[in-house]
Design goal:
CATH superfamily of the largest domain: Haem-degrading domain
Strand content: 35-45%
CATH architecture of the largest domain: 2-Layer Sandwich
Number of domains: 2
Number of strands: 16
Oligomer: single chain
Shape: globular
Distance between the termini: 37 Å
Structural class: alpha+beta
Largest sheet: 6 strands, antiparallel
CATH class of the largest domain: Alpha Beta
Length: 291
Amino acid sequence: MRLQVAIGPSLLLAAAASAAAARAEDLRMEDARRVMDAATTYAREHAAPGGAIAIVDAGGAIVLFERLDGTFPAGSRIAVGKAQTAAAFRKPTKAFEDAINGGRTAMAALPDFFPLQGGVPLVVDERVIGAIGVSGAASAQQDEEIARAGAEAMAVETAESAAGSPVEFLEAARVAAAFAHGEPLLENREFKVHASRREGPGEAEVHDRDTDVVYVLSGTATLVTGGRVVAGRAVAPGETRGASIDGGAARELGPGDVVVVPRGVPHWFRQVSPPLTYYVIKVTSSKGAHS
């Protein structure tokens, strides 16, 4: 059994004044339900032992909430806090958790602030219209994955309705801010542009639909491609990650290098000399890697 609650505007008159600044049409109930459906579907398909999922509008007011069986009692409050933090600061809450872990502990003193990964903004036309927060899954990483699955449902819908969309321009300041933590710059159904940053090696990855075009800006790394992913697991539809790669070919990457990793090819940053910053252009195919 799961509990789902929709909260209308008439019940939120006592919310913060910032909620009134968000137009009612910014986050429609049908959009919130689509985001929730994607998140709960991902949670079920990946055997999450529980999970509280909250969706808020741009002002932080709760639009939709769902609590899956097995969720610990405090999960509901934490999920709402993560969503409100992501909406208020217009960025994923993981960025704040990373900053505090990196030594910026003063941020933890901010009021009504939940610097725990699992809160992700909902973005339409480069504008944050709300956020989703998740707590109580198998791990902090799975909280994040469930939240991103929900947020990506909004991104896909936006792309489908954006035929004839205008040319995108990303100002230098925004790009620099994205590289400071490693964040997506632009995502739609056909391609993604990520400002990526690594401070150390990562997991092996395989994308069934995305071809990665990598352009290195700073730092050096050893990239292994091909071979077989060790202890692979599905983290999202068409996305596999694992501990390492058995076999494959190793290449040394440095500033100015470009590498193209076709869809379906395992790849792994085995060694990194930080900070490694690089653009990733992900070109999405309508077919899977084995189609």
